[in-house]
Specification:
- It is a single chain.
- This protein is about 15% helix and about 35% strand.
- The protein is an alpha+beta fold.
- Strands 1, 2, 3, 4, 5 and 6 form a six-stranded antiparallel β-sheet that branches.
């Protein structure tokens, strides 16, 4: 994935609580961050605060990060299904400039209030604020 292909980015600072017994970034912390960022991206792309993780493909760890390193997580949508959004992820160490991991497929499903898959009606990426679920725009809390 080239930098120009990434359509959503976020950055994290590796802190002591993010380390494993080897003193490097704990894979579980990184996977939690990726899942959270993918959920935010799916919510914004599907216009529904009820997008859920369906599938995460093989995860290929190729390098790591140390305490104090800054990492950048990039996501790009690769496919819109009838009820789903598929994306690809890449994480880089901004200090060493090395790729930390890639995930070829992360699939989120648009669900209704009963938790059942529901068509979303989108076929392409958009950053139009019209897709932000209205409960987030109005400032009201879910009841």
């Amino acid at each position: 994935m080239k930098s120009s292909d990434i359509t959503f980015r976020t950055r994290k600072w590796v802190r002591p609580e993010d380390l494993n017994a080897n003193g490097t970034l704990f894979g579980g912390s990184l996977l939690k961050w990726i899942d959270e960022e993918a959920a935010i991206y799916a919510i914004l792309q599907l216009g529904n605060g009820r997008a859920v993780t369906k599938y995460i493909s093989e995860i290929n760890f190729v390098s790591s990060a140390a305490q104090g390193d800054l990492i950048e997580m990039g996501l790009t949508a690769t496919k819109f299904g009838r009820t789903s959004l598929t994306m690809r992820a890449e994480v880089r160490n901004m200090i060493t400039r090395r790729c930390i991991l890639t995930v070829e497929e992360i699939v989120f499903v648009n669900v209704n209030s009963e938790g059942r898959p529901e068509p979303h009606g989108y076929t392409e990426i958009s950053y139009d604020r019209g897709r932000i679920p209205s409960r987030y725009l109005s400032g009201t809390q879910p009841g």
